[in-house]
């Protein structure tokens, strides 16, 4: 996705004629916390209610967190940045999902996934992992996976709107800003540049 247009406006272009649909496309950055922190708490409760064990829980939890970083990279690179050609409806869909963020990166209400997208995605991943993992392991794995998602969403908002003093956060912010303002075909990792380094989509360091 080669960048052709970037606006510093605090509000992006209207995407839907319907006020209802337009409202669904905007969300305050704290909303994912209200939805998914209870999900994390419920999973942890289920895990300990089934007496799976503390050590096993943390093994699965950190595995879920690690898997999220890979899913984040794959989705950002191959789903959000997939630009269809020749189909107007497909181009519009791409703009709705991610193109609008690159055109209006300062719009605070389009920096985290709206519930209309995040809830179906989380549900799909839950049933996918439940089918793949051994019985009951989902209750330790999924809260780590969802915590990774929450870190991604909230840190994405912070990267665009906060000024960081810590060196680690400065590097994370610089990585994402280069993705927006230098080359949108590199730097797909938002919460971590790990997979960019592995798959050689990182920025060249001078």
Explained architecture:
The protein is built from eight helices and no strands. With 206 residues, it is mainly alpha-helical. α2 runs antiparallel to α6, α3 crosses α6 and α5 packs antiparallel against α6. The longest helix has 27 residues. The radius of gyration is 18 Å and the shape is globular. The mean pLDDT is 86.
By DSSP, the count of extended strands is 0
Described by the principal axes of the CA atoms, the overall outline is globular
* SSE succession: HHHHHHHH
Indicate the percent of residues in helices: 55-70%
Strand-pairing-aware structural class: mainly alpha
Count of helical segments? 8
Mean pLDDT: 86
Distance between the termini: 24 Å
Radius of gyration: 18 Å
Task: Please state the oligomeric state of the protein chains shown.
Answer: single chain
Low-confidence stretches: none
Largest sheet: none
Topology:
Elements: H1 19-24, H2 31-49, H3 54-80, H4 88-103, H5 115-132, H6 138-161, H7 167-181, H8 194-198
Helix pairs in contact: 2-6, 3-6, 5-6
What brief labels describe this structure?
mainly alpha, 206 residues, single chain, globular
Question: What's the quick description here?
Answer:
With 206 residues, this protein is mainly α. It is built from 8 helices and no strands.
